[in-house]
Amino acid sequence: MRRIGIGLCIIGLLAWGCGTDRKTYEGDIPPQSGQFYKNKMTDQVVVADCRRDTPIGRMTATALQGLVNQDTARVYLYLADHHVRQLNDTKRNFQVLPAGVQTRNPGLKSLFGKYASRVKTIYLWNPEEEWTWNMAVMLSAHNQGIPLTAGLKEELLDGLAWEGKTENLQGRWASKGEAYEWAMKEILPRSHPSVLFSVGLRSDWVHNPWTLYDYAVASKGFAFWLDDADSTEQQIIRQICQKGKYRPGSIVMGYAKSGDDLLTTVNQYGIGYVVSDYYSNGSFWCSYPNKSFKQRPGVALEKVEAGKVYVSIIFSDGDNLQFDQNALYAIWTEDSLRGDIPVGTTLAAGLQEINPVLLEWYYSHKSDNDELVAGPSGFQFIYGRDYQEEGYDEWLELNRKWLASAGFSVGCLWHTTFGTDRFDRYIKTSGLKGIFDGDDKTGTVLQDGVIIMNQGAHLVQEGDMYNSLVYHTPVDSTRPLFINLYPTAATYGYHGIARLKREMARLEAEFPGKYVYLLPGDLVATARRYFERQNVKTSDK
Fold it and tell me: Longest C-alpha distance within the chain, in Å?
């Protein structure tokens, strides 16, 4: 399909400089800070290539990396091929540790061989008592240790002179509840004051273990692996949140056995969610100085026409740190058609502190047809309906500052309930020009100078866009309609621009000139101008 084929229904409102010109995206306000753990940079970067290691070898290497990086970000791991490119892009000098070709777990062994003197204690954990992994991780963080199984210990120390002690955690606690009761007493008071972790041995750990453990160990954040859907285990989570005395804006990283529903529990204690289970090298990237960013303001069309449908598109899941670093990074790298049509992509505002290099990468690779958007529910994933009332105003103020310095002017909001006091307070304080509501059929509303509209249909596969616009979108011939669509990046996103272009071409062929595609910020500006000129506050759903 020729690129010009749908050009008539796609409007580029303003050329705002080349996407690679730093001056266009460097922020004018100081970046936010103080939510995440930070360490120091060093000129001596050491790389361990763990791509050929066993799953348990890779997992253990991340824990050891976190120990070495607690004060200074010395160690970087190759855990996937794109990690090589991401490090190369920094132009940093680094040394790749030599590793045997035939040896088992070459990356872990090379890393341990170099930093064995840093390890004072080996904590033996047992996969049959899965809670011992988390205990070993936390003990390692606080006591210069490394978590090992008995078999991996034997393998790692073979032929290596190491002076240290070994503590066997197998059978130390009779149950999971007893283990966490002990940890809350002995470890929680010494843990990071605003970052904790929902991480552990998910069912797929023997094949594809999580990679966040370096950041958990480096930060000394409390780490639990408990099921929020189980009443007994939920109560343990509540006790952790209560006894941790976490301030509003604190963060739980990783993922949960009950998925996003963990929010219902932790939000009640002023803690937000930053999904990050497969986020790698966090203890390295956090050493970079915080940075703020900006984007051009949304620009309104001078004229809109009755009966036409003005559409923006926002890809999902960018609030997930690991998605930003992995799948979304691949999508942006590999999709040669990106830039052909206007689309928004959600990102995590917290990247300006925890990984400013990655956030800058997106800004520097953004075309004029790309817009970066705040994922739900702003600078953290929260459910506004469930968030602790005593801390909600403080969270709202943090949200405003973090979104502003990340350069986001529109964002998504979930589970806050349109029309409630919680929703109204968010509208008044967020600083956003437009909010896409993921829950309620709000239509399009102008409230307190902010455009609010439904986040729109989730596009999972090709054809969903056509079906949503043709069969599920009522159109009033007497007025324009403003609508957003929400492609699920993990399913629709790979080669997603090609899919969108095919669907746009089909719509244009069958309904010439009916659908006009805008960046989210431009759609918001256009809707606002229309309502202000018409002196109305809402459009039909």
Answer: 82
Which of 251, 285, 319 terminates a domain? The answer is 285
Based on the fold, state whether residues 322 and 454 are members of the same structural domain. Answer: yes
* Helix, coil or strand: residue 466: helix
In the structure, what pLDDT confidence band is assigned to residue 7 with cuts at 50, 70 and 90?
Answer: very low
Q: What is the pLDDT of residue 9?
A: 54
The full length of the chain comes to: 541
* CA 406 to chain centroid: 13
Does the residue 504 lie in any domain?
yes
CATH number of the domain to which 296 belongs:
3.20.20.490
| CA separation for the pair 457, 454 (Å, rounded) | 9
**Is the CA virtual torsion 54, 59, 64, 66 positive or negative?**
positive
Query: What percent of the chain clears pLDDT 90, i.e. is strictly above it?
Result: 89
Dihedral angle, C-alpha 90, 93, 94, 95, nearest 10 °:
150
Average pLDDT over residues 129-156: 97
Collapsed DSSP state (helix, strand, coil) of residue 416: coil
Write down which residue in 266, 285, 304 finishes a domain. Answer: 285
**Rounded-to-integer distance, Cα 502 and Cα 277, Å:** 34
Q: Which two tokens stand for residue 99?
A: 């590793």
